[in-house]
Design a protein that fits this description.
Blueprint lengths: L1 H32 L16 E3 L5 E5 L4 E2 L22 E3 L5 E5 L4 E2 L10 E6 L4 E6 L1 E2 L2 E8 L2 E6 L3 H12 L3 H4 L6 E6 L3 H12 L3 E8 L6 E7 L17 E7 L4 E8 L15 H7 L1 E2 L2
Antiparallel strand pairs: 1-2, 2-3, 4-5, 5-6, 7-8, 8-17, 9-10, 10-11, 11-12, 12-16, 13-14, 14-15, 15-16
């Protein structure tokens, strides 16, 4: 009987322990649910780093993910690596014998001290009704113009190319034939509408070409004319009846009822032999205006 009472006591003790444990775990579970959840992330301590921006200012890491703050205006002066960009050690020889190196955020060559364009003056042609800046001379050679019909030729006096071009424009009667294959021989015609403009394009560039569109240049107030091949499967640069593999200048003014066309060629026509970075062609094109 004594051993039986001892076994009952052990069992009772185990039951009490289980009940107490269940109560403790139950209390912990209930109180855990009462703790309010927080949506605020724990703020990290960001490393003290800095990046240089294009304007010379610096930005550091910030925010919950410790990301770099944006630069004013966007972009980094170093490509995002945290240190100033290193340009390659190259040099360019200038006409005066000095050298310039690469610098700035884009590592471009600094300008030569004497690389400015020579003097340009506004050329005005009342008969053909336009004006345009032209150089007075290039490398000591005078810049000249020659007119024939509705064509005006621009070139350097006495050069073989200019002499050959003069012979071309004076050797034929048809204005469209005069300018074929001649760079900077400007042809100006009167046109009143898009239909006449399309006829001009066909006479000038071939029957396989047609008016492709007009885009207004807000600076000059003139329309830049696009040409497209009549054959939708062809491109203007492909061989065919609309073969155009050179740069061209084609401006139109509905107000003046005039169109001007110039073949610019496949390379710059007017530049300095002393400094190939000097380009007169682009300044001439940008300055063109009809005056009547």
């Amino acid at each position: 009987m004594k051993n039986g009472r001892g076994g009952i006591g052990v069992i009772a003790f185990i039951v009490v322990v289980i009940v107490i444990s269940a109560g403790v775990f139950g209390w912990m579970f209930v109180n855990q649910k009462k703790v309010p959840a927080t949506s605020q992330p724990i703020q990290k301590t960001c490393t003290e780093e800095a990046r240089i921006c294009l304007d010379g200012s610096y930005i550091g890491r910030t925010g919950p993910n410790c990301e770099f703050a944006p630069c004013p205006g966007g972009g980094y002066g170093d490509g995002g690596f945290g240190s100033p960009r290193m340009c390659t050690m190259e040099a360019k020889l200038c006409p005066d014998g000095s050298y310039v190196g690469r610098t700035g955020p884009n590592c471009e060559f600094s300008p030569c001290q004497n690389s400015e364009k020579g003097a340009m003056s506004m050329y005005r042609n009342e008969r053909l009704g336009f004006e345009m800046k032209i150089p007075q001379e290039i490398d000591g050679i005078k810049f000249k113009t020659v007119e024939s019909g509705n064509v005006i030729l621009f070139g350097l006096d006495g050069t073989p190319a200019y002499k050959e071009a003069i012979g071309r424009i004076n050797g034929v009667e048809n204005d469209f034939e005069k300018v074929k294959g001649v760079s900077w021989a400007m042809l100006i015609k009167k046109v009143s509408n898009d239909s006449e403009l399309d006829v001009f394009i066909k006479n000038r560039y071939g029957n396989g070409c047609e008016l492709g569109g007009k885009e207004l240049d807000p600076v000059s107030g003139l329309f830049d004319i696009r040409i497209k091949p009549i054959d939708p499967g062809a491109e203007p640069g492909e061989f065919g009846s609309c073969f155009l593999n050179w740069a061209l200048f084609l401006k139109y003014s509905p107000e003046k009822n005039s169109v001007a066309s110039v073949d610019l060629g496949q390379a710059v026509s007017f530049s300095s032999a002393k400094d190939s970075t000097v380009d007169y062609d682009s300044e001439m094109v940008k300055s063109f205006r009809f005056i009547k």
